[in-house]
From TrEMBL:
Belongs to the peptidase M10A family. Matrix metalloproteinases (MMPs) subfamily. InterPro entries: M10A_MMP, MetalloPept_cat_dom_sf, Pept_M10_metallopeptidase, Pept_M10A, Peptidase_Metallo, Peptidoglycan-bd-like, PGBD-like_sf. It comes from the Eukaryota. Pfam families: Peptidase_M10, PG_binding_1. Residues 130-296 form the Peptidase metallopeptidase domain. Ca(2+) 1 binds at residue 228. One of its GO terms (cellular component) is extracellular matrix. This is Peptidase metallopeptidase domain-containing protein. SUPFAM superfamilies: Metalloproteases ('zincins'), catalytic domain (SSF55486), PGBD-like (SSF47090). The active site is at residue 252. Its cofactor is Zn(2+); Ca(2+).
Length: 301
């Protein structure tokens, strides 16, 4: 859905030429929280430049405000539909812990922020505003919508096993267990595969582009774009646009637990994942973020 961004290569503020595809790029920046417009004009104005600079700094690119090759390439990669900037707070901004305690109050933003990462004291994980989490819960239930096997072409038993593994990745590091139940209505976490607009104001966009989204605690909605070629095992799929379902599921479950996006490319909570890319191992950054919210699983070492 974002292939047209290529035509914006080298666009920058103040240029005389109006950019035909700029409204699309503005919608993109708005969708992921970078700014908001009342209308999407083709004018490359100050607001556009500021939003692009914030995007660039989140993704470790030169924050020039110009739509250079690397920026365009990054923007076109498939990604999670959850925003990078929530309520004007860029959770992804690289931050250095400046406190000796493991938690500190970030007065400027009024939210409790995470502690030191390993080594340099740089952490990349983030939370939603006010750090919501599942309070006092050791067990969360989940259900997979009955239409999922037909929509994905993946057998129900394989989907069950895949999601069990994805939840188990997180259960290994925090003191929460997850169990599948048959009742969609009663489950804490409800998994669907949906096309386009599906009732939450965050429509899916067809092949690649946005792959899925998970809502912050204690909402429990866990949604995947039914238009994707979801693969149980990308190595046995011949499709160039195959998407590894378990990798995306692990990321979205991170949101369900309360994690925001991480600026660290090797973290599971990094916003983008390529077609055919597999990322199944939680990074220490993901683990530290989850453990800030819930504490460590006593069996985790
Ligand atoms: Zn995400
Ligand atoms: Zn949704």
């Amino acid at each position: 859905p974002w292939d047209d961004f290529r035509s914006l290569l080298d666009a920058h503020k103040g240029q005389i030429k109006r950019c035909e595809k700029l409204p699309q790029l503005k919608r993109y920046l708005q969708e992921f929280g970078y700014t908001s417009w009342e209308e999407f004009t083709p004018d490359f104005d100050n607001q556009t430049e500021a939003a692009i600079k914030l995007y660039q700094s989140n993704f470790g690119l030169n924050a020039t405000g110009t739509l250079d090759e690397r920026t365009i390439t990054q923007m076109m990669k498939p990604r999670c539909g959850a925003a990078d900037v929530v309520d004007g707070i860029s959770a992804m901004a690289r931050r250095r812990s400046n406190s000796s305690s493991s938690r500190f109050l970030d007065g400027a933003r009024g939210t409790v922020r995470g502690g030191r990462g390993p080594g340099l004291g740089v952490r990349h994980y983030s939370f939603f505003p006010n750090s919501p989490k599942w309070e006092s819960r050791q067990l969360l239930t989940y259900a997979i919508d009955a239409s999922a096997p037909a929509v994905t072409g993946i057998a129900a038993a394989d989907l069950s096993a895949l999601f069990a593994d994805a939840f188990a990745s997180w259960a290994a590091v925090v003191p929460i267990n997850f169990t599948e139940i048959p009742s969609f209505a009663l489950a804490d976490i409800r998994i669907i595969f949906a096309h386009g607009e599906h009732g939450d104001g965050r429509p899916f966009d067809g092949i690649l582009g946005v792959l899925g989204h998970g809502f912050s605690p204690e909402d429990g909605r866990l949604h995947f774009d039914a238009a994707e070629t979801w693969a149980l095992d990308v190595s046995s799929s011949s499709s160039r646009s195959a998407v590894d379902l378990k990798s995306v599921a692990i990321h979205e479950i991170g949101h369900i637990l309360g994690l925001g996006h991480s600026a660290l490319e090797s973290a599971v909570m990094y916003p983008n994942i390529g077609a055919r890319e597999v990322k199944l191992e939680l990074h220490s950054d993901d683990i530290e973020g989850a453990q800030m919210l819930y504490g460590a699983n006593p069996n985790y070492d």
